[in-house]
Design brief:
By secondary structure, the protein is mainly alpha-helical. The protein has a domain of about 55 residues. The chain has a two-stranded parallel sheet with strand order 1-2. Strand 1, helix 2 and strand 2 form a beta-alpha-beta unit.
Length: about 260
């Protein structure tokens, strides 16, 4: 059956399908259907064309997201340690691939932070902006554009490799030229969106936080880290300023 379904859908590049638990009797069909729907919620972490079922997923639960990945990658980039930076991404990949216990949004939020760290370090090193086009204003939409986790990870790895290639082969841009380019980019961004880049990123992070807090499995402190706040108290103040209530109260209301 699996081979037959794959042959039917082969013209479609991005697809998954699921099978529920085998049951006997029409009264249990809904239970099987529900199991298939739950299995489909993990499609992000599996290659297109994969058939998911409860039996397969039950043996694949992996570790939790490594929250230290943001700190470790930042330290590796600041030291210009290419091997350690690559090792951070390798550990992250081993954690996430085919791990149905993770939430797609949580992984996207973490990768958003990692993309942003590389972009920020590129700015600090004054690397040529034209050679590192994925800067912070484009990252939120970019991280959500991937159908499959492996493509997202491959893109992050490519950006890291480009960062070190530029670091080793290109000298820093003239400071005056770099500042002028940065000013022009920020001005264009504000004219297009009506917001400064910082305002846009803050709203994006807090909207991501609200979505994560809608899931009862997520608590406030891990969520603050997932969306890029190292200080949970500062996160709580920013969240309350944006929504009118604290993240704790928001979460309690949503899970009732």
């Amino acid at each position: 059956m699996e081979s037959y379904l794959k042959s039917i859908f082969s013209p479609v590049r991005n697809f998954h399908f699921a099978a529920g638990t085998p049951v006997c009797g029409i009264r249990k069909i809904y239970d099987s259907y529900s199991a298939a729907v739950i299995a489909l919620q993990s499609t992000f972490f599996f290659e297109p064309g994969t058939c998911l079922n409860p039996e397969r997923l039950s043996g694949l639960a992996g570790p939790e997201l490594p929250e230290q990945a943001v700190r470790d990658l930042t330290a590796a980039l600041e030291r210009a340690d290419r091997d350690e930076a690559a090792a951070v991404l390798s550990r992250l990949y081993a954690c996430c691939r085919e791990n149905p216990s993770l939430l797609e949004r949580s992984v996207q939020s973490l990768y958003y932070q990692l993309f942003a760290i590389i972009a920020d370090q590129s700015r600090k090193q004054q690397l040529p902006a034209d050679s590192m086009p994925l800067m912070q204003e484009k990252i939120p939409e970019y991280t959500e554009s991937f159908f499959f986790y492996e493509d997202l990870h491959r893109s992050l790895t490519a950006m890291l490799e480009e960062f070190f290639r530029l670091l080793n082969s290109a000298g820093p841009e003239n400071s005056a030229v770099y500042l002028i380019k940065s000013y022009i980019a920020c001005t264009i961004f504000k004219n297009e969106t009506g917001q400064t880049l910082n305002q846009y990123l803050t709203e994006y992070r807090l909207n991501q936080a609200r979505e994560l807090l809608n899931d009862p499995r997520n608590t406030v402190s891990p969520v603050s880290t997932m969306v890029g706040y190292n200080d949970s108290n500062y996160f709580s103040k920013a969240f309350k300023k944006y929504t009118g209530i604290s993240p704790t109260v928001y979460r309690e209301r949503r899970i009732k």
